[in-house]
Write a structure and sequence with these properties.
Elements (H helix, E strand, L loop, with lengths): L4 E4 L11 E7 L6 E4 L2 E15 L2 E6 L2 E5 L5 E5 L8 E8 L1 H10 L18 E4 L6 H15 L4 H20 L2 H4 L3 H4 L1 H9 L7 H8 L3 H12 L3 H19 L4 H7 L5 H12 L3 H8 L1
Parallel strand pairs: 1-3
Antiparallel strand pairs: 2-8, 4-5, 4-6, 4-7, 4-8, 6-9
Helix pairs in contact: 2-3, 7-8
Length: about 290
């Protein structure tokens, strides 16, 4: 099944010759993949869900931030179509020329290091936890300036973008500090779970991979994801099944087995609890 994809153009969003656009957007479960001809920095403000970037799928929650260059194919989706499952993000988009201008103005720090991406993914991601509200405050200030447009708003909006880029560049230039964050130490486990949804996944086996006690692993995992281990695994399996339901012609039974459920009844129960409808209803609604 071919994945539908849109191309977004910055020229339809930029105004007053200012190559910066900011919004706060509630994501839709049925949104199509898209790419764009501008740079995008997006910050999860409320809720939980998934961010699909190419072939990668990342569970997201408040505090997650992604840097997406030109041409990245991606889409955010809440956990389920239910109106009670919201996923709200701030989006700040700007042109490459604006990035290079900011890099010239930011003496003493290389802003372009934020755009040195992993070899297997055309994006960067990080998480801002707890009392650190600077990132969200910057996004809200940018949104206010962009929306109200008081005299001098363009200069102030640019200065706020510059602050954001400098702050992010500082984070990316301190890899040793970043390693101290529990969420980073869990990254390979999260990717392992996403890539092995068809296999048995237990706290014991994951803790052994990290060379941790089960208790310590459980605490760090919940701190990183905001969910107990078993809840995260179930949500990841259901999300994988949603993709198969919409993008393949497989019947329900092989889909359930492909995401780790040997018992079809258990799969139906978990799917309905998380998504709010049966797999068959979900497939019909998505067609």
């Amino acid at each position: 099944m071919k994945v539908r994809q849109e191309l977004f153009h910055g020229s339809t969003m930029f105004q007053d010759q200012l190559e910066i656009y900011v919004n706060r957007f509630q994501e839709n479960f049925h949104s199509d993949f898209h790419s764009h001809d501008f740079i995008e920095i997006t910050y999860v403000a409320e809720g939980t869900g998934f961010h699909h970037i190419g072939e990668h799928v990342f569970p997201v929650r408040k505090g997650d931030l992604f840097i997406l260059p030109l041409g990245t194919t991606h889409v955010f989706r809440p956990v389920s179509p239910s109106k009670h499952q919201k996923l709200i993000v701030y989006n700040c988009i700007f042109t490459e020329s604006m990035l290079y201008k900011a890099n010239e103005d930011a003496a003493g720090i290389n802003l372009l290091q934020c755009f040195q991406f992993p070899t297997d993914m055309n994006a960067s991601r990080c998480h801002f936890d707890g009392p650190n509200q600077r990132i969200e405050s910057l996004f809200q200030q940018m949104l206010d300036e962009h929306t109200v447009r008081k005299p001098g708003y363009a200069a102030l909006l640019y200065s706020l973008l510059l602050q954001l880029l400098i702050y992010l560049a500082r984070q990316f230039s301190e890899p040793d500090q970043a390693k101290l964050h529990p969420q980073d130490s869990m990254e390979h486990i999260l990717q392992y779970i996403r890539n092995h949804v068809d296999e048995p996944l237990t706290i014991r086996s994951m803790a052994e991979q990290c060379r941790m006690s089960e208790r310590h692993f459980f605490r760090l995992f919940k701190q990183r994801t905001g969910q107990p281990f078993q809840d995260f695994v179930q949500h990841t399996r259901v999300q994988a099944s949603c993709e198969l339901l919409l993008r393949t012609n497989l019947t329900i039974a092989p889909i359930a087995e492909a995401v780790g459920y040997k018992d079809l009844q258990s799969f139906h129960q978990v799917f309905k609890r998380i998504v709010g409808m049966t797999p068959g209803q979900y497939r019909k609604q998505g067609l």
